[in-house]
């Protein structure tokens, strides 16, 4: 289909911004799958400067990328007040102007992947607003499990015109347990993206273990939790028993979630070693970071879209997470159980090390599984375009 044949605008109020490279990845993958021109991909960005750093702003048109001073002030005041449902007032101030631009013959995509895995948030507000305006709403590439359920979220799910889920565990829960009928299963849109070659630091000439950590899994930055002791024990093993270099690869730079803080903490635990590096990814886009991950021999990742990169380039990896999204994607790619670690329920200080040793021992086996699965898996992500076509998003001649 020719890009010029697209006749509707596609709105993305949860684009947020590329300070989280996962948000950028979803945008790039969606544009590639649906073949959308920049003027028809309308995004809401909290900080357009982050999009400019990654270059994604060239593929997106924006509405209300900045709050005016009065609106910011009102949001701060409301957040400090003890009033019922104050979040709704904040969401109204933040999103109302954007949502009011959407017409009934256009489509709104709710992205973010795991937005529904946290507390009740703006997704509920936005979907309810669109439903009442009779606007086609697609919940796009999501994950959602029983532990995430609230009645407010179920209402929002029921009001979506279409739901695409990115792994089979969410699909089974939504269709079998919740009885939702408008649910389809397609891989996360980020799987379709290709690595973008860049010049990497010379330490990549050595075999590298790439590690992506976030404060979501490491909690407070101090070596007091069992998970953090597991990470330190793994690093000690790599430094003492192998010649490989440890490369930390930050993926999120938002002030409240900055991966670099956690990476610096662990690097500083081994100040005397010259085999621990932090790749400066702040000015790299998602596809360039994927290229760096492709040059690692092994990878351990906390961020879902960092793991998606590792899977996509067939690097033997361990997912440092045990939410439904981590379990579901790992299951659908036929990964062995030892490539997923439940960081919330570690009992021993060497559990991560034990799983890493199994990863080493089965390196070629795991790589072969990924090589056998990944191309068909990526094609399934492209197949998601058909369900959008059926919503009447393009001219009949397409």
What does this 3D model show about the protein?
With 398 residues, the protein is of the alpha/beta class. It is built from 16 helices and twelve strands. It has a seven-stranded parallel β-sheet, sandwiched between helices. Strands 10-9-8-11-12 form a five-stranded parallel β-sheet, sandwiched between helices. Helix 3 (69-80) packs antiparallel against helix 4 (86-99). The longest helix is centred in the last third of the chain and has 20 residues, at 363-382. It is globular. Mean pLDDT is 92; it is low at 1-6.
Keywords:
seven-stranded parallel β-sheet, five-stranded parallel β-sheet, disordered N terminus, 398 residues
Radius of gyration: 21 Å
Strand order of the largest sheet: 3-2-1-4-5-6-7
Helix content: 40-55%
How far is the first residue's CA from the last residue's CA?
A: 6 Å
SSE series:
EHEHEHHEHEHEHEEHHEHEHEHEHHHH
- Point out poorly predicted stretches: 1-6
Question: Would you report the number of β strands?
Answer: 12
SS class: alpha/beta
Shape: globular
Q: Whole-number average pLDDT?
A: 92
Largest sheet: 7 strands, parallel
SS element count, helices? 16
How large is the share of residues in beta strands? 5-15%
């Amino acid at each position: 289909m020719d890009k010029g044949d697209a006749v509707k605008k596609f709105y993305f109020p949860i684009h947020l911004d590329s300070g989280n490279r996962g948000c950028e990845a979803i945008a790039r993958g969606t544009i590639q799958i649906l073949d959308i021109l920049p003027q028809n991909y309308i995004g809401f960005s909290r900080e357009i400067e982050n999009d400019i750093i990654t270059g994604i702003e060239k593929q997106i048109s924006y509405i209300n990328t900045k709050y005016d001073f009065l609106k910011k002030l009102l949001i701060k005041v409301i957040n400090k007040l003890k009033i019922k449902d104050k979040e709704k007032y904040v969401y109204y101030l933040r999103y109302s102007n954007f949502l009011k631009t959407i017409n009934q013959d256009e489509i709104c995509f709710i992205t973010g992947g795991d937005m529904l895995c946290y507390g009740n948030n703006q997704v509920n507000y936005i979907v309810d607003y669109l439903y009442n305006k009779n606007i086609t709403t697609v919940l796009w590439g999501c994950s959602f499990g029983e532990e995430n359920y609230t009645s407010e979220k179920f209402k929002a799910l029921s009001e979506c015109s279409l739901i695409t889920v990115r792994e089979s565990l969410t699909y089974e829960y939504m269709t079998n347990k919740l009885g939702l009928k408008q649910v389809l299963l397609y891989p996360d849109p980020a799987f379709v993206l290709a690595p973008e070659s860049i010049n990497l630091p010379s330490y990549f000439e050595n075999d590298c273990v790439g590690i992506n950590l976030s404060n979501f899994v490491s909690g407070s930055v101090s070596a007091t939790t069992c998970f953090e002791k597991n990470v330190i024990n793994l690093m000690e093993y790599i430094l003492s028993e192998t010649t490989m270099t440890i490369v930390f690869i930050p993926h999120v730079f938002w002030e409240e979630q900055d991966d670099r803080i956690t990476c610096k903490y662990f690097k500083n635990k081994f100040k005397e070693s010259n085999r621990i590096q932090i790749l400066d990814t702040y000015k790299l886009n998602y596809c360039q970071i994927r290229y760096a991950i492709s040059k690692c021999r092994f990878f351990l990742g906390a961020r879902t879209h960092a793991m998606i990169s590792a899977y996509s380039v067939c690097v033997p990896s361990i997912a440092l997470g045990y939410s439904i999204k981590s379990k579901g994607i790992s299951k659908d790619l036929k990964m062995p159980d030892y490539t997923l670690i439940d960081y919330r329920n570690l009992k021993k200080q060497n559990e991560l090390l034990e799983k890493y040793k199994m990863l080493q021992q089965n390196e070629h086996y795991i790589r072969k599984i990924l090589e056998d699965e990944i191309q068909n898996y990526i094609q399934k992500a492209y197949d998601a375009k058909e369900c959008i076509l059926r919503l009447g998003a393009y001219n009949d001649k397409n």
